[in-house]
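FAQ
Q: What does a multi-component entry look like?
A: The components come first, one per line:
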Amino acid sequence: MRIATWNVNSINARLPTALTVIGGLEADIVCLQELKCEDHKFPREAFEDLGWNVATHGQKTYNGVAILSKLPFDEVLPRLPGDDTDEQARYLEAVVSTGGTAVRVASIYLPNGNPLGTEKFTYKLAWFERLRLRARELRDYEELCVLAGDYNVIPRDEDCYDPAAWKGDALFQPESRAAYRALLNLGYTDAFMAADGGIHRYTFWDYQAGAWPKDHGIRIDHLALSPQATDRLKSVKIHRAARGLEKPSDHVPISADLAI
DNA sequence: ATGTCGATACTTTATCGA
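Then the predicted structure of the entire assembly, as tokens:
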């Protein structure tokens, strides 16, 4: 089974590109982030016509997450628990099963957190802690579980071109990295690190300043695997070519192959 | 040194978020 995650940066601004990219993934499950539309504006039929089951949790203008699955959904849970006043659509969880094996997948769009010293960074860390608490609950289910998405965290210095350029950025702060490590320390495994671990392997290149032609990217899209999922991990692929297409997202998909 | 993109609205350019 191949599980992919991709920050599409508006599903409606690049639907033809998105259909091409998603088709090329040859995935069974695709987590999407930054839909930038409400649920009724998601192009559901375009995906259903291609055989996808579609679950969305969107909002107007900002954020929004979805899960596409070739297998039917047994369960769909929008919203991250822990703060009923949080109106930002950044979390969607679903369960599918095949051959008696259940797989739980979450599509995650972690807050960016910039600029530092504002409530945006505080919100990022608070949201991260809510995610950790949910991840701890899910770990104790002892299921195959994949927490996939745009974490807005650069885990290592080697996950960016120039660490000095990111020094003052929320994605590179010690607190952000510590929060990501705390999630992994529950027992989750960063699929890329387990299967590859290479340096300067990016999933995002800014639209500005020629970041893509100069390969000045960052690795911020991650798949965190529960122990049961980690035992099944075969390989991880970063779908880098997507960044060179017409009207690309600033992120590319990353996928993990599990022996299921 | 510079360089972008997408959504929105008291819109046709400014603003915000990334």
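Q: Is there any commentary attached?
A: Sometimes. For this entry: The mean pLDDT of chain A is 97.
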